[in-house]
Write a structure and sequence with these properties.
This protein has 17 helices and 29 strands. By secondary structure, it is α/β, with parallel strands linked by helices. The chain has three domains: 158 residues, ANL, N-terminal domain (Rossmann fold); 234 residues, Rossmann fold (3-Layer(aba) Sandwich), CATH 3.40.50; 98 residues, ANL, C-terminal domain (GMP Synthetase, Chain A, domain 3, 2-Layer Sandwich). Helix 11 links the parallel strand 15 and strand 16.
Length: 564
């Protein structure tokens, strides 16, 4: 293989792109595997074959059209993982209706913003989860719902919303039950089948709100072509087949569950297993054992929770082979434990962003272990990657740190009705700018150094928190660690480490600094160290370093050097 000299890499093109819609591709899979188990929802006690799933999907697509929804209309879904979510995902694709994923962590103001931003005509919602009453939250924005006829809601604050559909068996005034909506559809409805012939794979099919750290979330708009191909090539990297059973504990409202999970599985005739509605370590371990799963997805914090659970050794995980670890950089030591203790010798690492459907890089099942634990793999088929100078925009030599950019089929259509933000993210040549710092080596392997905003400049020295984190993980007492920069009057910034200790382990601040002394450069040794129980994070497992930074600034009464 030709060695790279510059930080530009192009994926293979020997397997052609899928140019069908999701509905057409799905129907072709049913013809191949009608009696194969398609989905198992452990917490719901539901099992569907591919043929049974198709019937439910076609019935739902018919019901949506009969409810007055048209291709291009938007329907929101505000729910954790369940079969209803999967049915809705494929039914909307068949009906040409754009599915809007709404994060269950959203509160009232965020929900109102999202529904109005994309003008949702309908909303599917779970009634409650733990202490959150979702129906009450809707009533607080739309008190009119309680006296409304489903389909004819008139709401002052949500003028586009006409129907609210609740998942569950309770009868609630003004809300339509999911099962009742489904009952209005016909799996043999010719309207669905004739519509399918008119849909194009470049049609928008999904809107996902990005978890912006500042300002309002942006609605990344994705097409059939975006997500279907991405799911397919992710599955190819895992070597998925009809013999595999994929456990999906990651959320479906996020690209990880919806694309890397559902679409990777259903493009390969693989069985989907939902262990629970939301992540809980024991239910994952039990589902893997009971359903003989061969693949498991998760963000690093999920794998850490499974490995360190007191009951971990009770469960037989010997059927596991592969899976995807993504969402945030994986500590090397955790990766080694996943391979050795969870039998996932062919686990892959994936990297990407919602705006790229999501994955642009992935390791494969035969990537050498040292590359699998230290990189995010290579560029996926039919995509291009480059690392550029954030200042000049020029492509950098291999090994140099710069901003990672992606181009190809996976790049979103844009942010919903926000041309300004779209043109900030996607340049005139079609490159999506990630905001991530990365390197590409001469063999094409990519390594993430951190976010551009996370780069710490201490006394003129560039410090990449990821490098310091990897070193600190070597300490036997540390279970998890995150490193951030905080303001400093003398050096501009200083390093701060937050560490979670293993059960029963003890470690002092001085002890950790002594561990670093002579092993890493003095300017990389954290000045501030805090031992914590957890990190602030999004529900998708992304650690919110900006929150940690603000907390430390407040605790230490620090001011940004520029504003001091």
């Amino acid at each position: 293989m030709t060695k790279l000299e510059m930080s530009y890499s192009r994926g293979a093109t020997d397997t052609p792109l899928i140019e069908e819609t999701i509905g057409a591709f799905f129907d072709a899979m049913i013809e191949r595997f009608p009696d194969k188990e398609a989905v198992v929802s452990c917490h719901q006690g539901i099992r569907y074959t591919y043929l049974e799933l198709q019937r439910e999907v076609d019935r739902m697509a018919s019901a949506l059209l009969r409810a007055g929804l048209k291709p291009g209309d938007r329907i929101g879904i505000w729910s954790h993982n369940n079969v209803e979510w999967l049915v809705t995902q494929f039914a909307t694709a068949k009906a040409g209706v754009i599915l809007v994923n709404i994060n269950p962590a959203y509160r009232v103001a965020e929900l109102e913003y999202a529904l109005n931003k994309v003008e949702c005509k309908a909303l599917i919602v779970m009634p409650s989860f733990k202490t959150t009453d979702y129906l009450e939250m809707i009533r607080s924005i739309a008190p009119e719902v309680s006296g409304a006829v489903p389909g004819r809601l008139e709401c002052a604050k949500l003028p586009s919303l006409k129907t609210v559909i609740q998942i569950g068996n309770d009868t609630v005034p003004g809300f339509m039950r999911f099962s009742d909506l489904l009952a209005t559809g016909d799996p043999a409805d010719q309207a669905v089948h004739s519509l399918g012939a008119r849909l194009r794979n470049t049609d928008a099919i999904n809107i996902q709100f990005t978890s912006g750290t500042t300002g309002s979330p942006k609605g990344a708009t994705l097409t059939h072509r975006n997500v279907l191909n991405n799911g397919f090539f992710i599955g190819e990297a895992m070597r998925l087949s009809p013999d595999d059973r994929l456990c999906i504990p990651v959320p479906l409202y996020h690209c990880f569950g919806m694309v890397v999970g559902n679409l990777a599985a259903l493009t390969h005739g693989t069985t989907i297993v939902y262990p629970n509605d939301a992540f809980e370590a024991v239910s994952v371990l039990r589902a893997v054992q009971d359903e003989r799963c061969t693949a498991l997805h998760g963000v690093p914090t999920m794998f850490i929770a499974e490995l360190d659970h007191p009951r971990f050794k009770e469960f037989d995980l010997s059927t596991l082979r592969t899976g995807v670890m993504a969402g945030s950089p994986c500590p090397i030591e955790v990766m080694k434990r996943v391979v050795n203790e969870m039998h996932m010798g062919e686990v892959t690492i994936a990297y990407g962003m919602t705006e790229t459907s999501p994955a642009s890089c992935q390791s494969t099942t035969d990537t050498p272990l040292e590359k699998r634990v230290s990189t995010i793999g290579k560029v996926l088929p039919h995509l291009e990657l480059k690392v550029i100078s954030p200042e000049s925009g020029e492509i950098l030599p291999v090994g140099a740190v710069g901003e990672l950019c992606t181009r190809g089929y996976s790049v979103m259509r844009g942010y919903w009705e926000d041309t300004a933000k779209t043109s900030e993210a996607i340049d005139a040549e079609g490159w999506m700018h990630s905001g991530d710092l990365a390197t590409i080596d001469e063999d094409g392997y990519v390594n993430i150094a951190g976010r551009i905003k996370d780069l710490v400049i201490r006394g003129g020295e560039n410090v990449y928190p990821r490098e310091v984190e990897e070193f600190l993980y070597r300490h036997p007492a540390i279970q998890d660690v995150q490193v951030i920069g905080v303001p400093d009057q003398k050096y501009g910034e200083e390093l701060c480490a937050w560490a979670i200790l293993r059960d029963g382990a003890t470690l002092s601040e001085d002890g950790l600094r002594a561990f670093c002394k002579g092993q890493i450069a003095h300017y990389k040794i954290p000045r501030y160290i805090r031992f914590v129980e957890s990190f602030p994070m999004t529900v998708t497992g992304k650690i919110q370093k900006f929150v940690m930074r603000e907390m430390m600034k407040e605790e230490l009464r620090l001011k940004d050097a520029a504003s001091a």
